[in-house]
Amino acid sequence: MKLKAGLLTTVAIGAILAGCSGNKADSAEEGLLSDGVLAVGVTAGPHEDIVNEVKKLAAEEGLEIKVISFSDFVQPNTALVEGELDINSFQTGTFLDTVVEESGYDLAKIEPTISIPMGIYSEVYDDVSEIKEGDTIGIPNSPTQEGRALQLFEEAGLITLPEGSGQEVTISDIVENSLKLDFIASEAAQLPAQLQDLGAAGINSNFALDAGLNPKESGIFMENIDNLEQANYIVSRTEDKDDEAIAQFVEYYTSDEIKQFIEEEFKGALVPSW
């Protein structure tokens, strides 16, 4: 795989212009590589691991990538809008749609990356059928992920949600809760650490993996990854979506080398979506 001549030119220009502006958003007219580096935001765990592999692949052909890791789902989009990042790679399309609707951020989906199942985890039970009346259940408190977790518990047969509802549902929308489960919403990244104080929790697999929980071995109930509708996406500011550096990043990310890394490293716990 060879870096396009136009991108090499952009890199060369970037070396000359580096330091002229500390704000990437202000220098968008000169291209995202005006400072010679493509800044990519990720969340800790699989997204960070994969983009670090992309970084190695890109470095072989002269594209420098700076990987910036975050511990929550809010900061990567804020940092992107404020120009601290050039792109990010951590969120589902549904999550981004909700963020854009609620915040007014002008962000664009570029390319699907991976699909990551959510699972139910417990340090007390080996099967969801063992969950007892009155147990405290943890779920993520971020937009769409709360609803996604509730749909997972409905799929497991523990609660009933309004017919036809999607990932916009919240705890207050639960129609039937025969076990009187006490659902509490927490920061998604904190749920693995809180698991010792919970009957069970719905945890995104990227945070589970980061905490040493293998979804295939530790999850007591998992989403069917073949049926996941929402892939994760590479995201940029809308004004930059056609920047050549992003196209090159996508080319590296969706390469056979990265696909092989994902399959060997995560062993089916997450899968490529391209």
Automatic annotation (TrEMBL):
The protein's matches in InterPro entries, at most eight in alphabetical order, are given as: Lipoprotein_NlpA (IPR004872)
Q: Quick one: a GO cellular component term?
A: membrane
Its membrane topology is listed as:
Lipid-anchor
**What is the predominant subcellular site recorded for this chain?**
membrane
UniProt KW keywords: Lipoprotein, Membrane, Palmitate, Signal
Lipidation sites of kind S-diacylglycerol cysteine?
C20
Protein name, per record: Lipoprotein
